[in-house]
Each structure stands twice: as structure tokens, then as C-alpha cells.
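Please produce the structure of this protein holding nicotinamide-adenine-dinucleotide.
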Amino acid sequence: MKEYQIAVLKGDGIGPEIVEEAIRVLDKAGEKFGFQMKYQYALLGGCAIDETGMPLPQETVAICKAADSTLLGAVGGPKWDTVPGDRRPEKGLLGIREALGLFANLRPAVIFPELRGASPIRPEIIGDGLDVLVVRELTGGIYFGERGRRTVNGVEAAYDTEQYTVPEIERIARVAFDMVKKRKHRVCSVDKANVLESSRLWRAVVTRVHEEEYPDVELSHMYVDNCAMQLVRNPGQFDVIVTSNIFGDILSDEASMISGSIGMLASASLGSGKAGLYEPIHGSAPDIAGTGKANPLATILSAAMMLRYSLGEAEAADAIEAAVSRVLAQARTADIWTEGMRQVSCAEMGALVCEAL
Ligand code: NAD
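Below is the modeled complex.
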């Protein structure tokens, strides 16, 4: 039987509760599709600070590097809000992404037909549902460029620099083009090439990678301001969106909120190898930790992404997503509950997804 080594970082707040349900679902999928998971647990965030004084112990880095992939809950909480900046739980999050060389962030914005009513977008605009994947460059651009303060004409000024190298653009373009294989074969590259020199290079490199390596994929280009508008006007036109760090930061939040609930949104961060880091986009929700109210579906759907993108178990991933869809037709956690539905706890939701599998 195939065996996968999975590093598990439960984290803080609702992290342990939601990760537990994702693990139950992964085990069930393994039973059904003929693979076995071996889990290695490690500390990240506030729980790591409590145990070791640091948000990202070296042991955690070693365990994640040795694994086929990493599953993460969420980190942080009021208990650690007063620790010094370089030892905050969020530092652990940035640190592990950097240590694993993860340069691509994938955020699917999917509307399950059962949750159409939860979207802030009108049903006639959503149509039969929505399935957009935002591929955001994660380690370059203005968030990492030269910055500083200086005096300009006698007044104080500050600057940040957007810079991309050709290899940085090539590798993120390849991630996006590779993603369309099982999708609708359309990539939209988003930039601001009418104004920014870095965007002009971005557009030229994406165009060349497309021509030379992926001529079968449909490629379009769009300015970021137009894209922000089109995402709420006609989101169905998009399949895969690829964009820079800062534009992706903003557009992926916009795209994901179209789908309604924060408890449903999964994400993946990938590097040059197969291994990745998979986590829900929400935080550790300290306000509901320990109450059984957390929605585990974002983490369960992140685990499905791990099966698809890192472990080559696409069939199992499809089955988990279909099971989630079936469960949503009858039962909901409090955050997405509506009249007439059965309201269930975090653990009950995990059990129902396993049953539906
Ligand atoms: P949050 O995402 O934790 O919570 C925002 C709201 O959404 C809360 O009302 C919460 O109860 C609700 N919510 C979130 N996930 C839910 C789920 N699965 N089911 C049901 N309801 C859910 O954001 P926040 O309150 O701004 O941050 C709380 C802590 O999480 C902070 O310490 C923050 O730094 C941290 N955080 C961590 C990550 C991460 O680990 N990737 C991301 C964002 C925030």
C-alpha cells in the first residue's frame, strides 16, 4: 500500500479541532482509495512559544522538510499578542513558508451550489456556480523589495520597490499553466502593464512561457483594476488567475469572499518540488475555540488539495469535495447554518463527511 509522510501543525485556537477532523477524513479517503498516511506532529505558533520560547522550532522545520507534505491548522491568539515582534506566532508562519521555499500561493474560490445563498453576489451573476483559482506569487515583489525613508525636497517620504526577476516570473507562470490541466484550460495573467515597468516585464515573460511551453492553454491579460471589477461583475469568466504578490494578496481575498464563508476557504502554498503547505485561509478563531462551533470544512478541503497537488491522489480529492457538497445539502456548522438545515458541531461535520465518503 502507498504510504505518505504528513507533517501536521495543529497550531492554536481552533487549529487542533479542525485538523483532527481533516485527519479523520484523510484516513477514510486512504481506506477507500488504497493509501495510508503516517503523521508526524510538530509545533508552530503560540503553542511552540509556550513549549520552546520560539514560534518556529528547528525541529518543526526538519519534520516539514522530511515530509511529503504539511497540513496546518491556524496560529495566534490574544495570549501571544504582547510577545515581541520577532517572536510572534505569525513569524512562525512566514518562517515555515520561507524555510520550505514556497513561492506560489493557490486559493480556490469555489461556490458549492448548496451555499449559493451565502454569497454576497446575486444568484443570477453566479449562475451555475463558481470555480476560480487565484495563483499568487508569494516571495517576491513589493513586499520584499527595497524600502526606506528619506527626505524629498525637505519633507519626510517613504518608499517601497516592486521588483521581479525573469526566473521568478517564469516559475510562477509555469505553476499557473500546470494548474489548468484538469480545469477549463484558461489562464488570465493580471498586471498593471499600462503603468508599471515591472508589469511590462511580467506580461512579456508570461507571454513567452505560454508560447514556448504551453501553446494549448488559452492565455489572456488583464489590468488589475479591471480584474477587481470583473470578479464581482462576471466571475464565471475566470478559470485560473496568475498575478504578483501584492495584486494576488488583494484579489484572492476578493475572489474568496465571493464564495461567502471564511470557514469554507482552503489554500495551498507550493515550491519547486511536490511538497506543499496546506491550510485554511481563516485564523485561529480564539472567540469560538473549544466550543465545538468551528467549521472544519476549509481544513478538510485543504487536505483534499494536498491529495491533488502534492500526492497525486486526484480521485480521492474529487471524492472528498463531492462528499462535502453532499453533506452541505443537509447539515451545516453554525457559521453557514440556514433555516431548515441540521446544525452540527465541528466533530459531527467531520464524521458526516467521512460517512458521505
Ligand atoms: P479569524 O479568521 O481567526 O476569525 C475571524 C472570524 O471568523 C471570527 O469571528 C471567527 O470565529 C470566525 N471564523 C474563523 N474561522 C472559522 C471557522 N473555521 N469556523 C467558524 N468560524 C470561523 O481572524 P481574526 O479573529 O482576525 O484572528 C484571530 C487570530 O488568528 C489572530 O491571532 C490572528 O493573528 C490569527 N490569524 C492566523 C492566520 C493563520 O494562521 N494563517 C490567519 C489569520 C489570522
